[in-house]
Amino acid sequence: MIRDHVGTVIVALSQHLHLPLSPLEVEVKAMDAADSFAWYVGVQDVIFETDSHVIFIALSGSTMPPATVIDVIESIQHKLHDFRSVKVQHVGRQGNKSAHTLAQNAKGIHGFVTWMEESPPVIESLVLQDAMYLSLS
């Protein structure tokens, strides 16, 4: 999900992953897709949020990522250089409900679905809650 400075959804993507993956692998693949999607739609200044502390510290260069995700982490780090400005931040599950719900929704689709200039209906109420939570943090 890509939001503007006040939390309004600009564009969102939900993609079904067909392979059996661990939660960490799913999270890092979602981050990789978000990185590519943001570049594709022309966003130049990005803040990537993850509720995975492992991914957060790996992307910030503080530690070596687990072997199962190192290739994807390195790919993400390489692509981050294409943006004008980048920030990666750790967000607790409480501030990431809409992304989590959108990911759960992907289990019921084939391929991917995008929404332009609107919130996906399944997360409309959660988008506002997340924005309020993050503004209080």
TrEMBL record:
Coiled-coil features, chain-numbered ranges: none
A GO term for molecular function: RNA-DNA hybrid ribonuclease activity
Domain RNase H type-1: 2-106
InterPro entries: RNase_H-like (IPR053151), RNase_H-like_dom_plant (IPR044730), RNaseH-like_sf (IPR012337), RNaseH_domain (IPR002156), RNaseH_sf (IPR036397)
SUPFAM superfamilies for this protein: Ribonuclease H-like
Pfam family membership, one: RVT_3
Gene3D superfamilies: Ribonuclease H-like superfamily/Ribonuclease H (3.30.420.10)
Record protein name field: RNase H type-1 domain-containing protein
Organism: Lithocarpus litseifolius
